[in-house]
Amino acid sequence: FFPTNIEIAEILIAGIQSGRLPANLQLLIRLHPQVVNKGVAADSIEPYRELERKYPFVKVDVPQTVNWGSMVSPAREDGQRLAEILRHTAVIIHPGSTLAVDAAAMDCPVIGLGFDGHQPKPYDESIRRWWGFTYMKPVVEEGGQPIAWTQEELFSLTSAYLSDRSRDREGRRRIRDLVASQVEGNASRRVAEALLHAMQQSPKDR
């Protein structure tokens, strides 16, 4: 779905090397779980590994997957690892992922990608279309996740968040309240309590 992700990584690397971004940045590339298994959305990990070998400040994180598309939950260790990444990351850059909600829950600055790497694509093939999707529009409208429509905007937004992590914090709070509600944990307990409450009601009260 996002075939130019590798180009975005190259653009960020060039920005670090050229001084457009701070020279002491580390770039962690975490692949989407869906692309590391065989299937219609599969991606080759090797180009990312090549960047990791070539640039000491680049690291690749490959999530564990268990039968993508099934109802099997991811490994607990992988969820913990993602939480740790979100906790310590200075800014998240993503191509239209629900990771924006996770980032907002952790009050981590987040930038959406609105351009297709080195060369623009027709709208129907472009990452631009993602931001018109029903499930992404409310996240954008809350104002806690700006979109970088150009390379220049990507550098500018990244630098702004690196300088001031509190930037757009109120917007991230609105995203969190809109989509995630309570984020202190115990979500499974609340679901179970709601189901028990529903089962204890008489049919006429349901």
Question: How do the strands and helices of this protein lay out in sequence?
Answer:
Layout: H1 5-18, E1 27-30, H2 46-54, E2 58-61, H3 76-88, E3 92-94, H4 99-105, E4 110-113, H5 137-141, E5 147-148, H6 151-163, H7 169-180, H8 187-200
Helix pairs in contact: 4-7
Write a compact overview of the structure shown.
The chain is mainly alpha-helical and 206 residues long. It is 42% helix and 8% strand. Helix 4 (99-105) packs across helix 7 (169-180).
Keyphrases for this structure?
5 strands; 206 residues; two-stranded parallel sheet
Structure description:
The protein is mainly alpha-helical. Helices cover 42% and strands 8% of the residues. The protein contains 8 helices and 5 strands, in the order H-E-H-E-H-E-H-E-H-E-H-H-H. It has helices spanning 5-18, 46-54, 76-88, 99-105, 137-141, 151-163, 169-180, 187-200, and strands at residues 27-30, 58-61, 92-94, 110-113, 147-148. A 3-stranded parallel beta sheet has the order 3-4-5. Helix 4 (99-105) links the parallel strand 3 and strand 4 (110-113). Helix 4 (99-105) packs across helix 7. The longest helix has 14 residues, at 5-18. The model has no long low-confidence stretch (mean pLDDT 87).
